[in-house]
């Protein structure tokens, strides 16, 4: 593989590239789905291929292939340079990369149990056991269980001399129960919606989750939602449990601070951002004084935890929001200079060998506060506790949003009281984060994996994580459209 990588770099330089890199990626995936006591699907796939990225005449060029031959390596590298030269005829600005030290290193996701060494039979046995509990109530019409495992081996080599060999592994599992009765349908999921929980660890994730232990509660809550009232509209104090807050962070903090989006690269597809470049200089008040949000690609278990990004930049930790003040963008080597950074924050990643790297979200986490969870409930009498995302909507600038959840409870006497179905809440991003006045501590903090963040044209999927603990926001609009 290293010989093929060097051939690509030599070919690109000989054809006129000032810079070139090649990513050779071998990926393996396994997805298992059980539905209503039967196998819904078992999908296993393996892919291998390479992508060559170059700068020639000051512009980018890229080409890729799944044919791992010397002839194809030379052809693709030559094509990438030709594309760059053609692109330069429409050039508005010369591409310049912030400097990075040359590294030769190997990095592997730390795991205890390789998920690909665990039998499909063992995995199915657990999903069947959960399914049996979920369907013990006749009102549960659809029970779904999921497991997903992924491994990517990547070699990145550059004309600057970098040679980085990485192996990234992730595991995921979860389930949902859908109840139906008298024209009403409600769903509860565990441990989170949209497939459950995902982390960059091995099969120990699945063995360590209380999947079976929570199945009865999930089933009963799905059934209870059928007869629950809708959440009345009005302004209420709101507590978001951590998996819902993770998506709130994703949509109203993560995407708005992607620098390429800020500069307009996503404008035709997914919009721009209200976090314009002047807001960094002006110390924009993104949230209240207790809001501290970091990007951290070094934390154990994060889906965006790696040794190096696809620019060859070492994984980092930095503040996006510090004491409520906006403090930094997600950047790559190409755009880091725009806000005045001397180096990239290491956020450039691609979805496979046949896609160009772009700025992607990382492990973006709200740092824990000081509150005890039970004390927070007791201090929020009459407030609403939202759990488990069901839907979301946010405008083109990432300002106005609405989130729907699977369930919500009114808080009375420090406990969950009235259960509400189809609850939702609305807000404006900086107003919402400035209304934050209480964050639970380390003991309630949890890292949640989101394996399906979409961006770009052609579309790419990225795996990211968000860590947080239950958090309170004051005076939030809730229940719009429910009455």
UniProtKB/TrEMBL annotation:
- Name the Gene3D superfamilies on file: PmbA/TldD superfamily (3.30.2290.10)
Q: Which residues form the Metalloprotease TldD/E C-terminal domain?
A: 233-477
Coiled-coil spans in chain: none
By its UniProt entry, which InterPro entries does this protein fall under?
Metalloprtase-TldD/E_C, Metalloprtase-TldD/E_cen_dom, Metalloprtase-TldD/E_N, Peptidase_U62_metallo, TldD/PmbA_N, TldD/PmbA_sf
Tell me its family.
Answer: Belongs to the peptidase U62 family.
Q: Does the keyword Calcium apply?
A: no
Keywords assigned: Hydrolase, Metalloprotease, Protease
Residue span, Metalloprotease TldD/E central domain:
114-224
Annotated ranges, domain Metalloprotease TldD/E N-terminal: 20-84
> Record's PANTHER family?
CONSERVED PROTEIN (PTHR30624:SF10), UNCHARACTERIZED PROTEIN TLDD AND PMBA (PTHR30624)
Please report a single Pfam family linked to this protein: PmbA_TldD_1st
Under the heading SUPFAM superfamilies, the entry gives: Putative modulator of DNA gyrase, PmbA/TldD (SSF111283)
Q: What is this protein called?
A: TldD/PmbA family protein
